[in-house]
């Protein structure tokens, strides 16, 4: 299994982000922040040709459960979805929570990770 779930989209970067933001609400997720790496790198004097935006998404109830189970797992929060351009094509990519949680021995958290991942993959597939 890949570390990511990536799909090609015909939508513009900004339209994909708007649609993702709206669709994530269906599963109780919100967008904490969207980082614009092209802009960030440009402000640092670096030229980065393609658009690359990283969405930090979170479900507050699930985050609370994870943090209560093990505060160190806060290092894996929030979930991240990249919306980016490569070779003049646009993509939506999720860092799979199950890949990140595979390093743990707590089976309950792995099950939660699978549920979160399945829901996020559905939203990405719906948005593309």
Description:
The protein has 128 residues and is of the alpha+beta class. The protein has a single domain (4-127), classed as TATA-Binding Protein (2-Layer Sandwich). Helices cover 43% and strands 27% of the residues. The chain is built from 5 helices and 5 strands, in the order E-H-E-H-E-H-E-E-H-H. The chain has helices at 13-24, 37-43, 60-69, 97-101, 107-127, and strands at 4-9, 30-36, 52-58, 79-86, 89-95. A 5-stranded antiparallel beta sheet has the order 1-5-4-3-2. Helix 1 crosses helix 5 (107-127). The relative contact order is 0.24.
> How are the strands of the biggest sheet laid out side by side?
1-5-4-3-2
Instruction: Find the CATH superfamily.
Output: TT1751-like domain
CATH topology: TATA-Binding Protein
Mean pLDDT metric: 91
Helix content: 40-55%
Overall tally of structural domains: 1
- Give the ordered list of helices and strands: EHEHEHEEHH
Shape: globular
Largest sheet: 5 strands, antiparallel
| Extended strand count | 5
Could you list the spans in which at least 5 consecutive residues all have pLDDT below 50?
A: none
Determine the number of helices (DSSP H or I, runs of at least 4 residues): 5
* CATH architecture assignment: 2-Layer Sandwich
